[in-house]
Amino acid sequence: MVNCLPQIPQFDEIITAEEVEAVISKLLSGKARGMDGFSMPELKSFGPQEHDLLAQLFNTITATGEWPQALLSSFVALLAKVPHPQSPKDARPITVLPTLYRLWGKIMGAKIMRALLPYLPKDLFGSVPGRSASDAAWELQTALEQAACGGDDIVGVSLDLSKAYNTIPREVVSMLADKCGWPASLKRAYLSFHQNFHRFFKVHGGFHCPTYSDTGIPEGCPIAVPVMIMVTFLAWMEHIAAKIQGKPDVDGIQAVDFAFSTKLRNATQVQPHVLGSFTSNAAVPSRQKRKFLPPEETLCKHCGQEDDAKHRLLHCPHFQQARAHVSLEHALQWPTLLVTRGLARKPASLQAWDDLNFNRSWPMMPECLDHGMHLFIDGSTDGSRSVPRSAWSVVMLEPGSFDYALVQSGPLPGKQCNYRAEMFATLAALCSSVNATVYIDNKSVVQGLHRLQRDGWDQFYWNKSPEIQLWREIWEAWTAFGNDTADRYAKNANQAREHSEVKLYQAACRALADLQN
């Protein structure tokens, strides 16, 4: 069922105190208090110690899948959809979930959305961050105007699903979670909550008896929106994108590389207004449209010849000036997908080059230098902008000397660009010595290091960076010496306990061992 979806990489489900604090700061004070007793103003009064305790509680729940009984009760308020409601269908149920569950759900919902966003089709608008109802309205308005200008027919459908969230099968949610990068512990904890929590319907100011359910997602759940997006994503890929596979001239669309297609379209230098007339085929008589059009409307309105996307791009005299610099002989060799849709798959050799870089193992970065060394790092990128190749190096100079020695160098693993090469060299330099002066000539890397030095590791800030993994490695390498030193002193403190404490500890261990035996 979910095989039509891409496999999204698994994200990290661990919640930090900083994430708890950041989400609480954005909560609206007027939100309803849950049956766990916590109000929004109370959450906002919490300090760092409480944030840390909440993070520990949430991580324990996620790891075990066990929810405290106090977080398994909610009430349902019924909001009238008509002036004089007569039946349950006339009311919209709003589930007021426990306040702490909503806080956990908001943090996890944000993690789910960050994992989903890069993979969602651009045609999905509902509840997707960065895409609003006005965006959908403008896109629809544009399609209507294009149809009106071209004299084309256009058909649409509007559906309103009744109690949509309440009818989502949880078995489907489980399968979607596996495809959409959810860690197994998060899926278990989420489904465990819905399997065990109960609702009290609020009627005439009082509560009805508790009600359980084995299907659906409650409307007030912060994770309900990402779940609905996942369901819509599945429906789109299964019923809409799958239909595209059967259309003429789209063989191999699953292998299309959209970033490469954009580069290739730019390389052909065909004017945008020419591309705009065929890439969507909205205004071009296709094979299917010809069955319903009068004969005269199947002909090109500019030259009277049989009209289709290839004709407009390569043959129509009306667009001759726009494609004057494009070799017709060369253009005729373009893949059909590129000609009729502006799409292209990445050549096998280019894909092999990318695979080589992304599968390249990271080199060992041992601590190998004395204290006080001066380390110079650099990254180098050559080749074309479309096919770059990057490498990095670290060299050492002794203070007061121009004699140098190579510490380490090599080709860059992963995405090839100079910024990453400079970061990788910085990481190697930090790993090679616990106390050295590192010279860096890349402004962006220096700014990132200053940010770490000033604010420490800010998960919310670095989540926005595509190079979060490298920055995390740099932070851990930078703080490793201090952490190791603190760990050593902590172990020394354990060893330095008074003799009476040591004897008491040993007696406690023996007593526990006796009980277990």
Automatic annotation (TrEMBL):
GO molecular function term, any single one: nucleic acid binding
Lineage: superkingdom: Eukaryota
Residue span, Reverse transcriptase domain: 88-228
PANTHER family per record: REVERSE TRANSCRIPTASES
Protein name, entry field: LINE-1 retrotransposable element ORF2 protein
The organism of origin for this protein: Symbiodinium microadriaticum (Dinoflagellate)
Organism lineage: Eukaryota, Sar, Alveolata, Dinophyceae, Suessiales
